[in-house]
């Protein structure tokens, strides 16, 4: 979801859940059913360029979302603020052409990760 005006600095907030963080030894493994956080979005560029297998797309809006989840990661670290970061590129005449999500956790009870998806048509 984008918010107008489509210019650098436009900000808004939406709820999010962790998509990539999993419990190592507990069930359910997914945290998305039990944890939510507000994600602060910001348009960081309006003239970005994105390369995908289908070619180079421009001009594109680059939108970045940031959130933090306070999770019990292990007995040594205790509760830790875990960053959730999303990056999205919306290109003129195409829509969403690239998406990245990072959910990095310290080693312990949880596993995080990184996901990248690109438009291939």
Judged by helices, strands and strand pairing, the structural class is mainly beta
Classify the helix fraction into a percent range. Answer: under 10%
| Global Rg | 16 Å
**Oligomer classification:** single chain
Distance between the termini: 21 Å
- Strands side by side in the biggest sheet: 1-3-4-5-6-8
**Total strands:** 8
What profile does the largest beta sheet have? Answer: 6 strands, antiparallel
Proportion in β-strands: over 45%
Number of helices: 0
Overall pLDDT: 93
Would you give an account of this structure?
- By secondary structure, the protein is mainly β.
- It has no helices and eight strands.
- The strands form two sheets. The protein has a six-stranded antiparallel β-sheet, with no helix packed on it. Strands 2-7 form a two-stranded antiparallel ribbon.
- Strand 4 and strand 5 form a beta hairpin.
- The chain is elongated, with a radius of gyration of 16 Å.
């Amino acid at each position: 979801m984008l918010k107008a005006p489509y210019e650098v600095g436009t900000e808004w907030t939406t709820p999010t859940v962790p998509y990539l963080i999993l419990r190592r030894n507990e069930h359910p493994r997914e945290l998305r059913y039990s944890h939510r956080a507000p994600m602060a979005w910001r348009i960081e560029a309006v003239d970005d360029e994105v390369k995908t297998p289908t070619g180079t797309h421009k001009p594109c809006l680059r939108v970045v979302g940031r959130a933090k989840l306070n999770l019990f990661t292990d007995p040594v670290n205790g509760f830790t603020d875990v960053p959730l970061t999303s990056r999205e590129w919306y290109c003129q005449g195409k829509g969403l052409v690239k998406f990245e999500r990072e959910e990095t956790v310290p080693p312990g009870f949880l596993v995080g990760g990184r996901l990248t998806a690109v438009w291939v048509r």
